[in-house]
Amino acid sequence: MSGLYDVAVIGGGVVGCSVLHELTSSGYRCVLLEKNSGLVSEASAGNSGMLHTGFDALEKTELSCIQYTQKNIWDVLHKTGIPYHKIGATMIGWNEEQKSKLQEIRQKSEVAGTKGTREISISTLYQMEPHVRHGAHGALWIPEETVVDPWLTAVTLAHQARRKNATILTDTVFEGCQYNGSHMTLNTNKGHLNTKCAVNSAGVYGDIVDIIAGCPNFRIKPRKGQYMMYSQKAHGLINSSILPVPTGKGKGIIVFKSVYDNVIVGPTAEETDIRSKPPIDDSVTKRLMTVADNVVPKLHENRVVRMYTGVRPATDIKDYQLHCDVKRKWITAGGIRSTGLSGCLGIAHMVLEMVREQLGIEASYSENRTLTRQNVVMETNGTAMIDGIHYEVTHPIALCKRERTPSLL
Ligand SMILES: Cc1cc2nc3c(=O)[nH]c(=O)nc-3n(C[C@H](O)[C@H](O)[C@H](O)COP(=O)(O)OP(=O)(O)OC[C@H]3O[C@@H](n4cnc5c(N)ncnc54)[C@H](O)[C@@H]3O)c2cc1C
């Protein structure tokens, strides 16, 4: 922890990993602090692994971050070798009221710049998805929706930054900070470090970390999501992600296939006081089973291999909370509720602009935007070796990869 860092990033979820990568690639000397033993251990370890196109994102910052990510993520995936599958999504209206909303969603999707979204006939729907329950009233095809390995995406960004000399400190808890007019000192459970500025990307703890720094911006209202994951043997039952028509409360419960072919039903959305890994709720499991049965009846013939939960860093405000306190040299990238994976590169780019333009901090090194192909080997004990470095595998989607191919991710 010696010397003066340009930027300290607090939190090693997908947002922090992406910020670390963007700033390091731009020549900043960065350190990332993560309180858990592994990166990607909280909200980012409990998501669906979908790269959304922004077809229903109306919030200004969220949409622009998703659009930026959509432009730039493919290069990262190709060059580093992260598995993804542009599987598309089929949104189904199960009654006339839901059907009537499909046109509006298609228009929103056009405004968002999502390519190819179109309404399809009922006969086309059942040609494309023969195992979906009959009785649909209307459907929308969103071809650009993609599933990705959500753990490997975030860890890759951190790993690529590490290869360019970023420092990653796990088991390191941010506990406080002081700004002395020239630089900041951050206090952690492992000692102090000095930095020119700090970025709060602490996810569901973002409001607490802001308060500790004396820069309160918002209040987190954790929202739990629960999933039910089927064996990969069920993979032939769907060909795309099957979405309900969204309500004001969110995207609703989806029946989708992970990039490793596990069919997954979820997530739900429940307010909770628990910020970390809430338990599985049996009544919610029953609800998920009902959805599975209502959407793809044959799913019940298959084995459920895992249940998991995640917590969204939701707030009262729908849009991302991106703030820069110039006086305190403090940037907050918080309240990244339900599209942090889909918007991660855009969020990181906005943070870079704040560091450069609002804080006026210059990079210590020259820019290095090289991305290198990684050698990823899944171990049997829940860890993976990436180019010879051990990482804890924390996301159920990545952990379930082993069911089919025991040795390689
Ligand atoms: C059920 C569910 C489904 C979702 N589905 C999708 C999806 O399909 N696609 C999509 O794009 N998004 C999805 N999301 C949203 C996405 O997962 C989040 O937006 C994203 O994970 C937020 O990332 P983050 O880095 O802000 O937070 P986190 O992943 O929570 O990371 C914050 C990190 O900060 C660390 N931290 C906290 N306090 C401290 C401290 N004091 N010191 C050091 N470290 C600290 C935490 O340990 C944590 O690792 C979903 C979310 C959920 C819960």
UniProtKB/TrEMBL annotation:
Which domain of life, per UniProt?
Eukaryota
UniProt xrefs under PANTHER family = GLYCEROL 3-PHOSPHATE OXIDASE, GLYCEROL-3-PHOSPHATE DEHYDROGENASE
Source taxonomy: Eukaryota, Metazoa, Spiralia, Lophotrochozoa, Mollusca
Report domain FAD dependent oxidoreductase positions: 6-353
Put simply, this protein is called FAD dependent oxidoreductase domain-containing protein
Looking up InterPro entries in the UniProt record yields: FAD-dep_OxRdtase, FAD/NAD-bd_sf, G3P_Oxidase/Oxidoreductase
